Every structure is written in structure tokens, then in C-alpha cells.
Amino acid sequence: MAVPLAIKIRAKKLGVLLRDARMAAGKTMKECAEVIGVSGHRIGTYERGENSPSLPELEGLAFYLNIPVRKFLDADALVSQQPLDPVRFQSAIAIRHRIIAARLRMARQETDRTLAELAEQLGVTSGTVRAYERGDRPIPLPDLEQLARIFSLDIDELRDQTGPAGNWSFEQETVQQFLALSSEIKAFIAKPVNTPYLELAMKLSEMSAEHMRAVAEGLLDITL
Predict the structure, then answer these.
(1) Residue 204 phi/psi, 5° resolution?
(2) Among the four residues 58, 89, 188, 204, which has the most C-beta atoms within 10 Å?
(3) What is d(CA 158, CA 168) in angstroms, rounded to the nearest whole number?
(4) Is the distance from CB of 18 to CB of 62 less than 8 angstroms?
């Protein structure tokens, strides 16, 4: 089947990225395994593409290796050192698995698809899909990406938004966006004296079109 083959290829590519990131960070498979609560052997299967980490596990590894998760999805980003509590991190990953599982179960019900239909499209058993939906089994990223396509979901909707990995990734992507600006704009933003102008711009960006029009008309009356 074409789709399962694409998933296998994706798993191989993801494995290469994970291995490169781990080696660049100078970490062992055992160290990575301890962070997300799996065995060193499991990390090895991830790197060889025999299995794939779930999105929550990938977020945890990205955080630990100082590589924003976007690096493993479709883009480069900056890195920075962050403190890490493995016990709390593993707990957060478990919660993330449940959240993603619930979102996918809801999506399947909303689109009136059966477990068997999804299983065929993923090249797995119905029992595996059921375990995915219950949060009993982490969803390998290639499978999750395929499910997102099936349900027309943006993978970013499933990413961590409020946890330590999510906050860190957001900060990294924000810095990346800043560095992509022109040198003139970066210089303007960096000057403390310009902070009031930036705050004003933020407030204006939150206004409705009608409100903005009224403000513009008011300024026009003043200048005439």
C-alpha cells in the first residue's frame, strides 16, 4: 500500500534526524531514554526507523537535545540550554498522549470513520488504532501525521502549547522570526526608547477594522 510505505520512509528520515541531533548534543541513547521514560533499545529503534516516537516523546527529546521540535517537522530553529526534571517531564508526556488521543477520537467521530478504515490507511490493526485513541499506546509521529492529513488537521494544533517543551519551542521560533527581520527593524525593536511605539502597535493590531477606521478619521480631523 502506498500510504504505509510513505509512513515507513518518513520513519527512516525521522530516525536519521534524531540520531544526528543526539550525537550533535553529545547525549547517549540511554540518557535520552531516561528523559522520556523508555528503554535505550527503544531509542535505538527510533533512530533506525524501525519505530517512531510519538509527538509528545519527540517534543521531550527535542527539548532535551536543545533542538526545537520544528526541526523534526519541517524547519530549522535556534537552540538554547534549558533545565529539565525527568520525572515531571515524563508525567507531562503521558498527559500529552491522552490529550492527543482524545482529539483524534473526537475527529474520527466527527468525520464518521471507523477504526477499521483508519487501520487500513495506516497499515496497522484496528486494535492499534483503538489503543491510540485511548492513549494507551503512544502514536508514532508518521502515523500521527497521516491521521492529521486524514482529518484535515494542522499538526501544529496537536503540538504542546502550554507545557515546558511548548513554551520553549515558542520562544525559539519567536527568536527565529526576529532574526529573519531586516536589520533596520531589529535595531528599532532593540532600542528601549522605542518600546512605547511597539506597545502602541500591539494595541492597534488588536483593534477591529471599524475601530481602526474611527481612529484614523480622528487623527485626520486633528491634522486638518
Answers:
(1) -65, -35
(2) 58
(3) 16
(4) no
Give the residue among 77, 97, 71, 80 at the shortest CA–CA distance from 13.
Answer: 71
Exposure string over 124-149, b if 16+ CB within 10 A, otherwise e:
beeebbebbbebebbbbbbbbbbbbe
- The residues, any chain, with a CB within 8 Å of residue 96's CB and separated by 6 or more, are 55, 56, 59, 160, 163
Residue 138 per-residue DSSP state: P
pLDDT in tens, 92-124: 888 889 999 999 999 999 999 999 999 999 999
Length of the chain: 224
Rounded Cα gap, residues 148 and 155, in angstroms: 6
Residue-wise pLDDT for 12-45, tens only, equals 999 999 999 999 999 999 999 999 999 999 999 9
Q: Which DSSP state fits 112?
A: T
Contacts of 175 (CB under 8 A, 6+ apart): 78
CA end-to-end distance (rounded Å), the chain: 70
CATH 1.10.260.40 domain extents, the chain: 2-171
Encoded amino acid at 217, one letter: E
Cite the DSSP H helix spans in 111-163: 115-122, 126-134, 141-150
SS3 140: strand
Fold entry, domain 2-171: 434 Repressor (Amino-terminal Domain) (1.10.260)
